[in-house]
Amino acid sequence: MTEMDREIIGHMANPNNYGRMEDADSIGIGENPLNGEKVIIYINVSKKDDNLHIDDIKFEAIACMTTVVAGSIITNEAKDISFETAEELVAVTLGMLESVPPEEAACSEMVAVALKAAIDGYKLSQESGEKQTVIYKIEQSCSPEQEFSAVEDKQEK
Amino acid sequence: MKELLIKTHEAWMVTLMASFMSKDAESKRVLNDFSDILFRHFTWIEKALIEDGIEYDYNRDAVPIKVDSLKVIVTNIIDRLNTLDMMLAMLDKEALKFRLQTDWDYMKYALNEIKDEEVTAFDANREYKDYNLTKEATDALTLFLFEEGYKEYELIMIYNYLKAHSNDDYLNKIFQILIDESFFHLKSFAEMMAIMGILGVPRVIHKSLYQVDDVTQFLKDGIDEELAAKEQCKELSDAVAKDSDELAKFFDFINYQENYHIELMKDALKHYEENR
Q: Which residue range is the domain that position A11 belongs to?
């Protein structure tokens, strides 16, 4: 068994940062409206040197095991970093996924857009003074038959 | 009482997982029986919460189970039972309180008698018995066991929640059959995972999955999911057939069981539509 296999099995058996965060400062959702798959990201935020910073992060997935593995990996990367770095992480992840067949990219994409939704939701909440949950929708599931559509976003209170 | 439900849920999960870890027939039997009892405790505490009009859900903490020796996880279960014991003061249902207390007392005694053994359920050997599965078949089997192991836990919790909130005897009979069937599937898959060294606790399920507003749609979706599960069993059976006739036969057996689940769910849907 390769080291990669071992690592992936570790994420499947014991996903990092999995579960609900009761006192989250922001909640972001990545959703596939076609099949109901969903990733929910919870973040706790602080200000460090005038920069917004993700102190803690958790996620829940109503989705396949590949999405859970992606959530485990991406939330690990996003823990204890600034918003700016987290936004770069989202951009790099989505950029890398452009070269992957859409049906294989969907799981990681849903996690990345959920993280972006949590970040954007926090900023919107700060601006409006009201807590906002942002939902970003993807229109691609882990099924090769379906066509890829561009990411569409929707904002909900 | 809500905390009692959560901690009982966690103790049930750890005890169930410990039963899969053990290779000793007697220890496995004791742990499996105790996990069944803890699940029943869970349903009784849930019933008491409903009676008292207390809102609750099935959220719980992650339960770490990765150990090298059975004694470590058994000690962990005893610690959890001691924690539960301290919560009993919150419970004002005397009969239930007495039952829980006396069960835990005996369980702690019996758990202390369990022999220690080496645990290999986490060594990621990914070999099933002496079959020479190809890398492709092993990968397919690994993913299937993780996906479906979680799915069976999810189904147990969903049907349990629906049953707890329904007074319809006909529907509840169907839900109970589906709970029992999912327990068998979960046990079968988790035993295989333990042999392959990839045992894991199913993740916490999101409340939107069991706090169902539209039962009709839920049952329709459930039928579609059972059909998808059948297809996955068929694909897996085909993938392992050339390497292991026994495994192929097992997944065909699971596949055919899904047919009955689909019929039960269609029956539940018809009954629900006619009586709502």
A: 3-156
